[in-house]
Write the structure tokens for this entry.
Amino acid sequence: MNVSAEQQDLIQYAIRLGDDSLILGHRLSEWVSNGPFLEEDIAQGNIALDYIGRARMYYSLAADIHNQCGEMNVKSEDDYAYLRDERQYQNHLINELPRGDFAYTTVRQLIVDLYNVYYLEALKQSSEAQLSAIAHKAAKETSYHSRRSKQWTLRLGDGTAESKLRMQNALDDIWGYTHEMFEQDELEQRLIDRGVAVDCARFKQAWEQDITAIISQSGLKLPEAQWSVRGGREGYHTENLGHILTELQFVHRSIPDARW
Amino acid sequence: MLGGNVMLVIPTKSPVQFEREQYRRHSAVPELWAVLDRVTDPEIPVLSLWDLGVLKDIKRLGEQVTVIITPTYSGCPAMDVMSEDIHHALVSFGIKKVSVVVELSPAWTTDWMTARGRDHLRSFGIAAPEDVVATESNIVDEDTRALCPHCGSDDTSLISEFGSTSCKALFKCHRCLEPFDLFKHI
């Protein structure tokens, strides 16, 4: 039995969402033992774990569908995380950007958390039961994440001249990567038509309003620059992803299937 | 018509908890539930998986026992250990085939935690989700105060929304000066 085109779409979609979560989770995990103070260090670790947990759930879903289709090569979550190369990863580029300073991480996290508030709310309605279940679980966590990101944005944006400058620089550097998060290719359009995938266009305006509100409240300015970068969903990445994967996959590739 | 024997029933436990207990009471394998009562959260050893609300169901089909659990948080690193502990407990009890299935839906909520579990948490030095005072929403924020599990004072304040694990927030008590964790409502 072969995987039908519809199932193939669903597998790809689950992998994409898994990639977004895994790569961002990995970036956040880089703060562990480097946080500005102990509690914040722990908070970053908590949030990184939530994202990596989501990646596991999305990849496991992809593997389950693959395996149910009776394919010869049985797959697991680990195959997707550890044995794919850069061009096969389909995460949005914003997730792979280096962690930068704490302002940079905060701005990225604000953008992604507020996006996820809407994204997961919509994914709860997915006709695919397991995607909906993952969204129900993750949305609860995101309500905590987004509150924290807003607090930090206020604190740093409305803080010292130095913290404000760093926040503004981060915002100017990252903004061009947000547009890609609202673009959908044919694959996602097919899944939207089937009621499986989230139609980001529906919440773009609401998300922009939320971002604008918190940014102006923090004394920062939304960039006017028109540049934008895209390509993540097609497997075209910045130079950063390769570096992440070498670190992320090193142990598994050196000692395949090793167990603790 | 109501007669003279009208009894005022004061609900002492939530409907959700009542439902859980009824489900367990009518299970065909009470001995297996008892076995798993000895399996605890590896991070909070005073809390059994049942009391935590993570243990959802136990089914037996001949030699095969299937245990259904649900994760607290997506990235909870304790889930794998819990699965292994369940496996080990049932195998030691003489069950030959054990499988542990992780179900995500409906999503776990602290409402499933039993009253006994909440008491055990407090005696372990962790405030239970309902020990929160002075908050408008269920979300823990900077205005949240929680009853100190050590001295009972409500003169406490939040240190961090994220404690030693995802499920907990970190507080300090201004009366006894001890720090403590709060199990967050989710």
Summary: The mean pLDDT of chain B is 88.
